[in-house]
User: Which sequence fits this backbone?
């Protein structure tokens, strides 16, 4: 049993004894955290969330209700994952082989997904296998993300396309023609792109 300090686990949650859960994190109703998963400090794991074997989640991450984090997904610190966000792990899914036999776990490879520091994924976004989402990037609700998203990039739609940039405060910053926004964020007043970033 991994020692857990100041962790709140709802009685209906199913948390593997060897899963690591950091200081101050909460695991809500009917969530399942599998063997070898690592969840950082001060995370909120919402109702009915599934955290697969070996999944790594950083500190200060919010995972809203009904999100499934499959094997191969890595979430860095400070990430927001909206309700019903869908991470996929097979680009060419089939239940059976061409000869009609049932596919097994040996018939496909895991394609990792990385979500980097501070990024936010809107409700019901779908993330395809092998995609990386950059620091402070923002993905609009209902998007289907088929390619990598750059740091600070704001994308939406199916397939998700660039709409502009996103300030770390969350403010959308529209491109000036083909050029990314450069200047002062109208919401928080910080320079964009941020000094020293990404
Ligand atoms: Zn701002």
Assistant:
């Amino acid at each position: 049993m991994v020692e857990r300090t100041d962790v709140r686990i709802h009685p209906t949650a199913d948390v593997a004894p060897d899963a690591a859960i950091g200081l101050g994190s909460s695991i809500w109703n009917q969530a399942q955290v599998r063997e070898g998963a690592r969840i950082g400090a001060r995370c909120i794991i919402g109702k009915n969330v599934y955290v697969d074997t070996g999944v790594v989640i950083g500190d200060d991450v919010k995972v809203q209700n009904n999100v499934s984090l499959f094997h191969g997904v890595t979430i860095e610190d400070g990430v927001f994952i909206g309700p019903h966000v869908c991470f996929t792990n097979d680009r060419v899914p089939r239940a059976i082989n061409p000869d009609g036999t049932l596919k097994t776990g040996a018939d496909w490879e895991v394609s990792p997904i990385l979500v980097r520091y501070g990024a936010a994924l809107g409700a019901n976004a779908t993330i395809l296998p092998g995609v990386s989402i950059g620091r402070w990037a923002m993905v609009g609700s209902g998007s289907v993300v088929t390619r990598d998203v750059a740091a600070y990039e704001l994308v939406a739609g199916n397939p998700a396309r660039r709409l502009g940039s996103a300030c770390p405060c969350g403010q959308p910053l529209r491109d000036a023609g083909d050029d990314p926004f450069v200047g002062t964020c109208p919401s928080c007043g910080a320079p964009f792109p941020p000094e020293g970033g990404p």
Q: What stands out?
A: The chain has no helices and 25 strands.
